[in-house]
Amino acid sequence: MSDLLIKNVRLIDPSHHLDQVSDIQILKGKIAAIETAGSISSNENTRQLDANNLIAIPGIVDCCARLREPGLEHKATIHSEAIAATHAGITTLCCPPDTDPVIDEPAVVELINRKTSNTGHSHIVTLGALTSGLNGLHLSEMHALQQAGCVGLSNARRPIKNSLILKRAFAYAATFDMRVFIEPDEHSLSKGGCAHEGKIATRLGLKGIPVSAETIAIGRALELIAETGVSAHFGRLSSAAGVEMIKRAKNEHLNITTDVSAHQLHLTEQDISSFNSSCHVIPPLRSQRDMEALQKAVADNTIDAICSDHQPHDIDAKQAPFASTESGISALETMLPLCLRLYQNSLLDLPAIIKKITHAPANILGIDAGTLAIGAAADICIFDEGEDWQLSEDLMNSSGKNTPFLGWNFQGRVKHTVVDGQLLFSD
Amino acid sequence: MVNKATKPTDNLIGRDAWNIQLDNNGHLKHFLTTEGLGTDILTQILDTAESFADINEKSVKKVPLLRGKTIVNLFFEASTRTRTTFELAAKRLSADVLNINISTSATSKGETLLDTLQNIQAMHCDMFVVRHSDSGAAHYIANNVAPNISVINAGDGSHAHPTQAMLDMFTIRRNKGANFGNLRVAIVGDILHSRVARSQIHALNNLNTGEVRVIAPKTLLPVDIENMGVNVFHDLHTGIKNADVVIMLRLQKERMQGALLPSEQEYFKLYGLTEEKLQAAKSDVIVMHPGPINRGVEIDSTVADGKHSVILDQVSYGIAVRMAVMTMTLGREKVAGDNTGDNK
Q1: Angle of the A78-87 helix axis to the A106-119 helix axis, nearest 10
Q2: Is B161 a catalytic residue?
Q3: E strands in A324-392
Q4: For A132-164, how does the pLDDT look when each residue is reduced to its tens digit (9 = 90+)?
Q5: Chain A closest CA to B189's CA: distance in Å?
Q6: Chain A residues with CB inside 8 Å of B132's CB?
Q7: CB–CB of B223 and A208 under 8 A?
Q8: Which H helix or E strand runs over A48?
Q9: What is the CA radius of gyration of chain B?
Q10: Which end of chain A has the lower number of beta carbons within 10 A, N or C?
């Protein structure tokens, strides 16, 4: 069943610096051969997919997506979001630990894994909680979480106020070579805020979140990373100043990686100026200058990966005055199109942008994905680079329709998705 | 001193937010913010208020302009003075008035704002006067009510309080004449949390006021406030120098928490308005305050009750201004060429 021959496709695999029109042979769910187009002869039992004029890339790896299960199944489920991911060409999702119950014990990991395999769509990996119940006080059983399959540890956006506890959590994680995933946020500065502290928040009378909420958290973490030697990932950067600190730390060869959400590369504080709650995100959309610095950091590799920061909501979550709405964007469906826009706007070339959503995040998560090497799992996203389309609610497969990109015109659309050699989606 | 000029792009900020205030013919449908409203509309509000100010001084204070209309005062936040003046304004226009205090009813039972709105809407009313603790609440409600309903913002979070700002403009115009271009207006106090200040700043700038100043310690000023077209001062004496109008803002007691200020005493010493400090302003300066006053915190009693004070005038003008806004929004169908009545 999982044998497939994809013919005449432009294959872009940044993990091998490959960009050529090829045939891809898949046997038993793995990449068996990649040859120049027309050179692999098919046997009649093998399913064929003629992908002439289409682009094949390794299946997209999204290093941060909230699936809402367990805990908030009225917003979305593993089933609904895994299917939405497949349709969006995302074959691996990484789920942060702030579920309910929190991913702080193996049973929760097992629950998610079981639901994932029952769904039979995109893969889901998990981050374990850095502190028990994400309470910021007690270490979680990190080794047990590692054994259960967690690819890293995180306290999500929950605060660890005590720096000694943070240091010990880093040190304990380093004991098992586990990477810590940090969403930099100094809680005392961001608490109650819902918009970038700047001219728009001032006009709208919204409580601001200053850039220092991000930079102070980055600064503290960097010092403790240096002292403990833990490998660390900074996720969802939002500010020029934050990027600058990361850049300096990378120059000092600190073992760190970073990501930014796709929407932070396209939206600014200006987009909330009509109290548009679909643009209520945390960290907040910041100034034009911040957005441009983030784009530049993606181009110069200060930022390694781009994620969706997917946060699907039910309709009610966004039906309130701005500050009282829940934050987050349903973002799986726009992840690839928004990234392609960076290429279309000449910010970086196609292989470079593809790397940010395949090979780079797979390396960060330490998983066998994001590559189409011989023998690798056949997770493939095939898209039509030239197809024009407009995002509308009825095109969205995610349970969450909360996105500011409704009505946007995009170029480039997913046509087929292969997971473990199985063609799970064809448009 | 900060350059007052704003970049052309800044005029676009919030455009969508204020767009919904006008119907297809450019008439006022909702009154949510003074931001983005032209001199023409603001002047029309003041002129209309002028005609009602006389009615309020007669022994029979009622006109039948809004007979048969139902106005709902929807207050999600406690208020006596503002609600009362809205109620009086509506009654003097012969409208039926319903007061609903939501903080003590529906939402505490778990009903969402939208549910509450739809329920009241089903009673076939014509206008919501809304106060809510969330910035943007009035916009949200205006975007979600039936197309025939007008919404007046009676204060939303720290965002806007446009009728208060317009009664302040009315007070200034009555005392200083219609040419705002000659005036220097200083607003003193907690700008950070003040919806009144924001609405005043937009109104003053849209009426082409000569100079608008804000005076406060840095903890009570929002970032980039210069961007709204004001000059910023931290010293009261310098800030009110040669001012024609001084507007004092109320200082909430809870500002002593959260390290915004050390004490009321120090605040009064630095920013409290006394007879002596007022000497720096022009000799015919008027002193205003949206109320309620904290005597001895932001203003000395001798000033509040003194010859420069127009604080009680503000309260009585409040009724005329609210009558003006109500007739302008609800009376639109009488205007020739406007048959649509909404902009959806």
Answers
A1: 50
A2: yes
A3: 380-390
A4: 999 999 999 999 999 999 999 999 999 999 999
A5: 16
A6: 321
A7: yes
A8: strand A47-50
A9: 20
A10: N
- Point out the catalytic residue in the list B109, B218, B307, B334: B109
CA dihedral sign of residues B295, B298, B302, B305 = negative
Q: Tokens standing for A183?
A: 């969403």
Helix (H) or strand (E) holding B53: helix B39-55
What are A382's two structure tokens?
Answer: 């095939």
Contacts of A200 in chain B (CB under 8 A): 13-14
Q: What is the token pair recorded at B168?
A: 């302040």
pTM beyond 0.80, yes or no: yes
* pLDDT computed for residue A341 by the predictor: 97
Whether the Cβ atoms of residue A278 and residue A318 lie closer than 8 Å to each other: yes
Using the beta-carbon criterion (under 8 Å), do B135 and A204 form an inter-chain contact? yes
* Same-domain check for residues B132 and B197: no
Asked if A308 and A265 sit in the same domain, the reply is: yes
Residue of B nearest to A321 (CA): B137
User: How close is the nearest chain B Cα to the Cα of A217, in Å?
Assistant: 21
Determine whether A111 is exposed, middle or buried from the number of CB atoms within 10 Å of its CB (0-12, 13-18, 19+).
middle
Looking at the structure of chain B, the number of domains it has is 2
Q: Using a CB-CB distance cutoff of 8 angstroms, which residues of chain B are in contact with residue A274?
A: 14-17, 139
A9 and A24 Cβ atoms separated by less than 8 Å:
yes
Please check whether residue B341 lies inside any domain of the structure: no
Tens digits of residue pLDDT in B259-302 = 899 999 999 999 999 999 999 999 999 999 998 899 999 999 99
> Does residue A405 fall inside a structural domain?
yes
Q: Which amino acids of A are annotated catalytic?
A: 309
**Would you state the structure tokens that stand for residue A66, as one six-digit string?**
């909230």
The verdict on a CB contact (< 8 Å) between A202 and B135 is no
ipTM over 0.95: no
Residues 130-189 of B with CB under 8 A from A: 132, 134-137, 139-140, 144, 156-160
Structural element, H or E, at residue A256? strand A256-261
pLDDT at B79 over 90: no
